[in-house]
Write a structure and sequence with these properties.
heterodimer; A: 211 residues; Serine Threonine Protein Phosphatase 5, Tetratricopeptide repeat; B: 127 residues; alpha/beta; Rossmann fold; four-stranded parallel β-sheet; globular
Chain lengths: 211, 127
C-alpha cells in the first residue's frame, strides 16, 4: 500500500483548486440561496493563491504544504471559510508526522474537524461543514480498520462527506449567516459541506493517481 | 495602561463609520478600523486585523477587538491565537452600541474587564 507523501499533498491542492474553480458558480448559487454568496469566489480565489505559493516555494513535507494552505486561506479568504478551513489545515499540519497511512487519514479528518469546531463552535445537524466532516471521519475509520489503503480510506471519507452534504438539504440552519433565514434555510444544500466534499474527493483522486 | 480599540467589520466603510461615531464621545482613545477583506471587498482580513492589533500593542496599549458578524468573530479568534492574550481581548457585543459604550468606558479610565462588560451594551437591551 502506498503511503501519502508531499507529492500527494501538492497534487491534492492543484486538484482542489481546479474543482473549486469548476464548481465556483454552483457554490456561489448555493451560498446566495442561504448566505452571503461569497463562498464560491472565496474558495476558488483562495486555493488559486495556494497553488501559486506552493509552486513558488515548494514545501518539503505534507505538514509544510498544509501550513501554506492554512496561512493562505486565513489571509486571503474574507468569509467564514477562511478562518474555518485555515484552522482545519493548521490542525491538519500538526497531525502530519510519522507514517501517513490509512490510520493517519482518520487522524487528518479528526484534526480538520477539531479546527472547524474550535473556530465555528457548530455541532452536527446545524447545516454546516461539520455535517460533512463527521460522517467522513466515521467512514474513514471503518475503512482503515478494515485494512483499506490510504487512497481507499480517503475515497470512503469523500463519499461519506458527499452523502453528508446531501443530507444538509432538509436541515434548518442554526449556525452562521444561514441561521438568519430560519425555516427558509430548509430545502437548500449547505455550501460549506459541499466544498468539504469536493476537497475530500480531490484528496482521494490525488491518492488514487499516486497509488 | 490605556486601552485602544480595533473595530472589525465586513465592510471597510462600516468600520470607519463606527470609529468616527465612537471617537465623538471618546476623543482621547485610540481606534483603528479593520474592515473589509484584504482584497478590498466585503469580508474580514486576518492580516489587516493583526497589523492593527500589533501597531497598538507596539505603542503600549491593551487592545479590545469589537466585531460585527459571525465570521468576523472567527477571524478575530484566529488572530488571538498568535498574540499575547493578556494584552488583547475579544469583546463581543452589538458593534455600534458596544463601541460607543466601551469607548466611553476606556475614556474614563476603565480597565479591560470594564471595557469588555461595556461592549456588551446590556443596559440597552433590557425590557
Amino acid at each position: 500500500m502506498t503511503n501519502l507523501d508531499v507529492e500527494w499533498a501538492k497534487d491534492w491542492m492543484r486538484r482542489a483548486s481546479a474543482i473549486l474553480t469548476e464548481h465556483r458558480m454552483e457554490l456561489i448559487d448555493l451560498d446566495r440561496a442561504i448566505g452571503d454568496g461569497d463562498h464560491g469566489e472565496n474558495m476558488s480565489r483562495g486555493f488559486a493563491v495556494v497553488v501559486t505559493r506552493l509552486d513558488e516555494a515548494p514545501p518539503e513535507d505534507v505538514a509544510g504544504v498544509f501550513k501554506v494552505v492554512a496561512q493562505t486561506l486565513m489571509a486571503k479568504v474574507g468569509g467564514a471559510s477562511g478562518p474555518l478551513y485555515g484552522t482545519a489545515f493548521m490542525r491538519a499540519a500538526k497531525s502530519a508526522e510519522g507514517e501517513l497511512d490509512s490510520a493517519w487519514v482518520v487522524t487528518l479528518c479528526e484534526a480538520a474537524l477539531d479546527g472547524i469546531v474550535t473556530r465555528g463552535k457548530a455541532t452536527t445537524g446545524e447545516k454546516t461543514m461539520v455535517d460533512a466532516w463527521t460522517p467522513a471521519i466515521e467512514a474513514a475509520r471503518a475503512a482503515a480498520e478494515a485494512g483499506k489503503s490510504p487512497a481507499e480510506t480517503l475515497r470512503a471519507a469523500a463519499d461519506a462527506a458527499a452523502d453528508g452534504a446531501e443530507k444538509t438539504v432538509p436541515m434548518k440552519a442554526t449556525k452562521g449567516r444561514a441561521s438568519y433565514l430560519g425555516e427558509r434555510s430548509i430545502g437548500h444544500k449547505d455550501p460549506g459541506s459541499t466544498s468539504t466534499s469536493y476537497l475530500l474527493a480531490t484528496a482521494a483522486d490525488a491518492a488514487e493517481a499516486a497509488a | 495602561m490605556s486601552i485602544a480599540f480595533v473595530i472589525v467589520s465586513h465592510s471597510a466603510k462600516l468600520a470607519e463609520g463606527v470609529v468616527e461615531l465612537a471617537k465623538q464621545m471618546a476623543q482621547d482613545v485610540e481606534f483603528r478600523a479593520a474592515g473589509g477583506s484584504d482584497a478590498g471587498g466585503i469580508g474580514t482580513s486576518f492580516d489587516l486585523i493583526l497589523t492593527a492589533v500589533e501597531e497598538l500593542t507596539g505603542a503600549g496599549h491593551q487592545v479590545a477587538l469589537l466585531t460585527d458578524l459571525g465570521s468576523a468573530d472567527m477571524t478575530v479568534e484566529a488572530v488571538l491565537e498568535v498574540v499575547d492574550p493578556d494584552q488583547v481581548r475579544f469583546c463581543p457585543g452589538p458593534l455600534v452600541e458596544g463601541a460607543v459604550s466601551a469607548g466611553v468606558t476606556a475614556q474614563i479610565g476603565g480597565d479591560l474587564d470594564a471595557v469588555e462588560t461595556a461592549a456588551r451594551a446590556r443596559e440597552l437591551f433590557t425590557d
